[in-house]
Amino acid sequence: MMSSLTRWVLSHKRTVVLAWVVLTIAGIAAAGPASDALKPEFSVPDKEGWETNVTIQERYRGTGGESPPLVPVVTIPEGESVDSPAVKRDLAAMDARLERALPGSRIASYASTGDETFVSDDGRTTYAIVHPTPDPDSFFGENPRAERIARGALEGATVAGEPVKLTGFDALMEDSGSENEGPGVLLEAVLGGVGALIVLVFVFASLLALVPLVMAFVSIMTTFLLLLGLTELTSVSPIVQFLIALIGLGVAIDYSLLVVSRWREERSHGRSGDEAVQRAMETAGRAVVFSGVTVAIGLLALIALPLPFLRSMGYGGMLIPLVSTVVAITLLPVVLAKLGPRLDWPHRRTDDKASRAWTRWAQAVSRRRWLAAGAGMAVIVALAFSATDLQLGSSDANTVARSGNAKEGLVALEKAGIGEGALLPHEIVVEGGTD
Fold this sequence. Notes:
Helices cover 61% and strands 5% of the residues. It is built from 17 helices and six strands.
């Protein structure tokens, strides 16, 4: 089948190239809309905690639920008490500032509830829980826009002469100096491409180093076109765009590298033109198809998980290895047949024989295959064992920022014996209450 496909591709070079050019241009145009159509929804259906979050957001205008709150903190001087009239007025004024700055927010504090839970045992440290209205562009529930507004509203605010510190995960992230969204897909792909080019230049020592990158570009852009269509059928996690860019860069380059290396070997053995391409595809091409299908099946296995966003990573992520495979067995043979000999310059190495170093390595592994297999398994077991200590969940608040206003607020909570639990309080929904 591979032989027949390659013969057809080589006899219809213009049709194949034109088709991929059209798909790539369409993919470039679709990349932006496809990314905008992705939905950062991290639902856990049929789980009590998730259903409670949904109920809270529906009944309280989107506030709370899965979104972490902002936490204003203040420690008043010794000798003062939160029950004194002046302190109560200052605490109420702090709440009023936040209500004006963040209309629609849900605020709970000692001033609004009189609940001693919001006060430390020594009566000097108190805090508030502020759930702002959600940011429609938020990712993982963070709301940096609301944090910046609240920070501005509390600037200069004091209680009994002591400044109010704004903490919370959003505030800590802001003080950490890092961007919540991280580097974009384009930047990650460019950085990965530059690193790959350096390696490819070393491997090929010719202009052929550019060919795998071109194949990766075509594969990634075409996959974004398919992703746009997929978003019309179902919700897809924003993480999929990173999978497409990074996995696409890796597998497309890997498949191209395998085929091009095999093609160079055929040329070093005296074959040229379509014959060299045909022989390369009959061997390396089959390996590419096997690998691409295997990777796609591995990613598709994510659909077995009960989390919708992981499922979307499965059927969204499987697109890139499949597209990379099709590009490697259709477009790449045409490029090698038409431009390969001219791009293979300046070729200073021979592919007629394997390098001595790698030959010795392969012979050593073959002679001591059980030892090699045991060493490989030992590495895998060691990595698997270390993963057993992996703790999944929310970040430790103390590790997010080293200094700043938010860190000072967190330290004040911990010194007062309240702790960082105030940053992620448990919310409970009570149905049918009469009190």
